[in-house]
Specification:
The chain is α+β, with helices and mostly antiparallel strands. The protein has a five-stranded antiparallel β-sheet with strand order 1-3-6-2-7, with helices on both faces. Strands 4-5 form a two-stranded antiparallel ribbon. It starts with 9 loop residues before the first strand and ends in a 20-residue tail after the last helix.
């Protein structure tokens, strides 16, 4: 049983669909949020009709002997914005952003975001790993 209902993690629903993205002055940007502001920012952007993607995964906890599920960001502190300059400014006005990074290779980003969305939708066991540092060697077993 979830603590809170799952909030929208992507707006609009077809944002990552290749054929549905209009060609205009919108660009992909990576938003680096202030601490623990990802979901609040997603609510603000959803209310302002600004396209975004925030990959959320379910996390089960035991509280008072009961299993409860909550949804946490897959990438802590990051979410993805697909907007023009006015929507970028509206995002900055929320005061929930620390930094905005422009994306140079949008095709690769959209491909990777689609892969993440498919993994989450498939129910694959994804976890947030905090012990890894950039440059650490890892082995994928399966």
């Amino acid at each position: 049983m979830p603590i809170l209902r799952k909030e929208p993690s992507i707006f609009p629903e077809n944002l990552l669909d290749e054929q549905d993205r209009p060609e205009d002055d919108r660009r992909w940007r990576v938003l680096y949020t202030k601490a623990r502001q990802e979901k609040a920012l997603a609510r603000d952007l959803h209310g302002a009709n600004v396209p975004f993607y925030l990959p959320l995964i379910a996390k089960e906890n035991v509280m008072r002997g009961r299993r409860v599920a909550s949804y946490i960001p897959l990438f802590t502190g990051y979410m993805f914005l697909f907007g023009d300059d006015d929507e970028r400014l509206r995002t900055l006005q929320t005061n929930r952003i620390s930094r905005i990074l422009d994306v140079e290779d949008t095709e690769t980003l959209v491909y990777d975001l689609r892969q993440i969305q498919q993994l989450i939708a498939s129910g694959a066991p994804l976890t947030v790993e905090s012990r890894l540092e950039p440059g650490d060697r890892v082995r994928v077993k399966h």
